[in-house]
From TrEMBL:
InterPro entries: Amidohydro-rel (IPR006680), Deaminase_MtaD/DadD (IPR023512), Metal-dep_hydrolase_composite (IPR011059), Metal_Hydrolase (IPR032466), MTA/SAH_deaminase (IPR050287). The keyword GTP-binding does not apply. This is 5-methylthioadenosine/S-adenosylhomocysteine deaminase. CDD domains: ATZ_TRZ_like. Keywords: Hydrolase, Metal-binding, Zinc. Its EC number is 3.5.4.28, 3.5.4.31. Substrate binds at residues 96, 188, 218, 303. Zn(2+) binds at residues 67, 69, 215, 303. It comes from Candidatus Desulfacyla euxinica. It comes from the Bacteria. Binds 1 zinc ion per subunit. One of its GO terms (molecular function) is S-adenosylhomocysteine deaminase activity.
Length: 438
């Protein structure tokens, strides 16, 4: 009799494979960090060291948060209802200038706890002190693509930009081959990074064969600044510098014209959509349906907690679907299957991780979540995908497995002492209050 490390049974499996295959009364078997079998429930052929009964719930791939700033969980609610540049220049950048490595480590652990408890198993991070982000992600058992933010002004972590490039390269070398953590090169934006910085960042990413990630075309202010400085739109500017390509992940991409959409598709650039943050900061509505119709790979992200206030991808999916329906005045736009794929397999493709995660297929890493559907707001259930996008919430996730490791069981975190982390977070918030008053 075949023995597995983990078997999940008695649930409906949404594989999110190329056919969006659904297996009712399914069984998923994990050996080590790999999904070894996905199929119909078999009562007699298999044994498990750990048997998990899904109790009729939904079994699906762990969600992929394509863009966030995890440690900004400690800035949640700090400066709400402000324009982006006011928010950045008068609150966020000054506060970040007083952070240290321990602040980022604590904030990232808090974010990892929130993400695990709301179904996210993979996240992409852009922030400061990213070695601490990587360590916190690894300790919590999360899959993470991380990168140190690079910009023209002095960083509270590395100082001058020359040290920033050295720090980024050291991260690439340190974490290379890690089963959970990988590194990207991440210049902040076109209005905080000179052409020389962007070109050098691109060369570093290409040299090490890692992604290049940047905020692009997020606000009308950015469009105006880039046109004023370079006489081009942000996408045209990136193209003139040779940065457009399948290694580039563009976060936000809100303000694009038809020619830019065509160019993004032609060059194979990947996009991360952040609808709640874009709405809260009144940045605009990204042309996601147009990008997708041109074949562009689009994932979904929450952005940081200071511009979203939560890291729950279920609410993000719900918002993404409805936002584009009302913009197009068409209820068929951004259907539930499309949006769920953005949070799973398309998100994994956007981060370059589709061979590892994003769908429940034999041979892939075991990144799996279970949704408890025995709840009033999920009863009755005619269409599981519709429920996941329009009705489910992060706290409906009962179990989370990442890389074959059970990290949450029956809503209990197994890798993070959440009480201790929350106490540390409260202590850090006292310092933040002082920074704002100063």
């Amino acid at each position: 009799m075949q023995q597995y490390d983990i078997i999940i049974k008695n649930g409906t499996i949404l594989t999110m494979d190329s056919r969006n295959s659904v297996i009712e009364s399914g069984q998923l078997c994990v050996q080590g960090d790999i999904i070894d079998r996905v199929g119909a429930l078999d009562h007699g052929s298999f044994e498990a060291r750990k048997l998990i009964d899904a109790k009729g719930g939904l079994i699906l791939p762990g969600l992929v948060n394509g863009h966030t700033h995890a440690a900004m969980s400690l800035f949640r609610g700090l400066a709400d209802d402000l324009p982006l540049m006011n928010w950045l220049n008068n609150y966020i950048f000054p506060a970040e200038g007083r952070m240290d490595a321990d602040f980022v480590y604590t904030g990232t652990l808090l974010a990892c706890a929130e993400m695990i408890m709301s179904g996210t198993t993979t996240f992409c991070d852009m922030y400061l002190f990213e070695d601490q982000v990587a360590q916190a992600a690894f300790l919590s058992g999360m899959r993470c693509l991380a990168g140190e933010v690079l910009y023209d002004f002095t960083s509270p972590n590395y100082g001058e930009i020359e040290k920033g490039f050295e720090y980024t390269e050291s991260l690439i070398l340190k974490w290379r081959g890690n089963p959970l953590v990988s590194i990207a090169v991440e210049p902040h934006s076109l209005f905080t990074c000179s052409p020389d910085l962007l070109t050098r960042a691109n060369e570093l990413a290409l040299h090490h064969n890692v992604p290049l990630i940047i905020h692009v075309a997020e606000t009308l202010y950015e469009i105006a600044e880039v046109k004023k400085s370079y006489g081009k739109t942000p996408i045209e500017h990136l193209d003139s510098l040779g940065l457009l390509g399948p290694h580039l992940i563009a976060d936000h991409a809100v303000h694009l014209n038809e020619e830019e959409i065509r160019l993004i598709a032609e060059k194979g650039v990947r996009i991360i959509h952040n609808p709640e943050s874009n709405m809260k900061l009144a940045s605009g509505i990204a042309p996601i349906p147009d990008l997708q119709s041109c074949g562009v790979t689009v994932g979904i992200g929450t952005d940081g907690c200071a511009s979203n206030n939560n890291l729950d991808l279920f609410t993000e999916m719900d918002m993404a679907a409805k936002l584009h329906k009302v913009k197009a005045m068409d209820p068929t736009v951004m259907d539930a299957v499309t949006v769920l794929r953005m949070a799973t397999i398309e998100g994994a493709k956007a981060l370059g991780l589709a061979g590892i995660t994003g769908s429940l297929e034999e041979g892939k890493r075991a990144d799996v979540i279970i949704i408890d559907t025995n709840k009033p707001h999920l009863t009755p259930m005619y269409n599981p995908v519709s429920h996941l996008v329009y009705a489910a919430r992060g706290n409906d996730v009962s179990h989370s497995i990442i890389n074959g490791r059970l990290v949450m069981e029956d809503r209990k975190l197994l890798t993070i002492d959440i009480k201790d982390v929350m106490e540390q977070a409260k202590e850090k918030s006292m310092a933040v209050r002082g920074w704002v008053r100063d």
